[in-house]
Write a structure and sequence with these properties.
This protein is mainly alpha-helical and about 180 residues long. It has a domain of about 110 residues: Recoverin, domain 1 (Orthogonal Bundle). About 45% of the residues lie in helices and about 5% in strands. It has a two-stranded antiparallel ribbon. Strands 2-3 form a two-stranded antiparallel sheet. Helix 3 packs across helix 4. The termini are far apart.
């Protein structure tokens, strides 16, 4: 065999192997949405990370999927249970009680939710604020976080300066959501 024939045979063997391999990569789920705002995979703000890690807790019917409606209903229930003045809004003190119900709201604090900066949080401000978990994890944008999409959140890398065990209250070394993220008041 000549040198040219050797090269052609090698190229053909490579293509026989490479084309199916590339096909596998093309069919794999797109992990680009998990790239986060920074340069490294899983490089999220602490607020994003808390939303991601607590996303499974909003599954009110326990079917393994969390919908936007379940998220909004969860917010409305918390608002109604924390609105002691019954004016349909949360002031600073009422929000403090709200935050004690779910640690998410200790990180995504009053300023995060008070969009118009008027010193109170309305129902509209709560339910219309985009939820980072859906923005990041809902790959098909159907407003449903599937078990697979939620599991992807657990595989995200913690920032280099994060303590082991995930978000505050998480299982030691687990890096996932705490076993009792929401508590009753």
């Amino acid at each position: 065999m000549s040198n040219l024939e050797d090269r052609m045979a090698t190229l053909i063997r490579f293509m026989i192997w490479a084309i199916p391999a590339l096909g596998l990569f093309a069919c794999a789920p797109n992990l680009a949405p998990f790239a986060g705002p920074g340069s490294g995979r899983g490089n999220f703000s602490e607020t994003d990370r808390i939303f991601l890690m607590s996303s499974a807790t909003w599954d009110s019917n326990h079917d393994g999927a969390t919908t936007c409606d379940e998220w909004r209903n969860y917010l409305v229930e918390l608002l109604e249970s924390s609105d002691t003045s019954r004016d349909g809004t949360l002031g600073q003190d009422e929000f403090a009680a709200f935050a004690r119900t779910d640690r998410l709201f200790a990180v995504a604090d009053f300023a995060f939710w008070d969009a118009d900066h008027d010193g109170k949080i309305t129902r509209a401000e709560l339910v219309e604020r985009p939820n980072p978990a859906f923005s990041i994890l809902d790959l098909d944008k159907d407003c449903v976080l599937t078990t697979a999409e939620i599991s992807a959140a657990r595989s995200l890398q913690a920032p280099p300066d994060a303590p082991p065990g995930g978000p505050p209250g998480g299982r030691p070394g687990g890096g996932g959501p705490p076993t009792n993220w929401r508590t009753s008041t």
